[in-house]
Amino acid sequence: MLHEDIVACRACPRLVAWREEVSATKRRAYRDCDYWGRPIVGLGDPRATIAIVGLAPGAHGGNRTGRVFTGDRSGDFLFGGLHRAGLANQAASVRRGDGLLLHGVFITLAARCAPPENRPARDELARCAPFLDRELAALKRVRVVLALGAIAWDAALAHFARRGLDVPRPRAPFGHGARVDVAGAPVLLGSFHVSQQNTQTGRLTPSMFDLVLREAKRLAST
Fold this sequence. Notes:
Helices cover 38% and strands 11% of the residues. It contains 8 helices and 6 strands; from the N terminus they run ααββααβαβαββαα.
């Protein structure tokens, strides 16, 4: 039911228009592809102890392939790191049905539709928040939430607050390697987003990401 509710959502007119425009015009490299052009559901191990929260589908990644972080450079970086950490069976994912399996980790998003300029509006994030709540509520074994970027960090803290947990005020600032412990909630860790804006400029390197994943695994196992 949750899967169907997410895929059928048309609550944000701006995002619906954008995702469908991108799917119709396409990128030249993908002109022969059938774009998904709908909201994206989470992906991973239902018994996960680590949940990764990303920002939104890439216009020509998840919005094209129909799977989170699949088919773009951000996903290449993310799945490469998960593979090195022993959390994925392969180092890349190019399409649904390509054999990717995640072990002990589940990937979800703060926003389910590709937004213009990768910037969902506050009201759009608010409309997506119940989907995040429902996905995380179904993951009964999660002990660590890893937020990729400041928007995902804020979305995770807002999720904890909606659960009625005592989230510190003012909210802890996002940073790479930042950590927040909220009573009754999984440990929250932060990482710079795996976008090319960070990975191609050296702001986020594979070794930096490996260290965060190593810490997430350590915390999830204690």
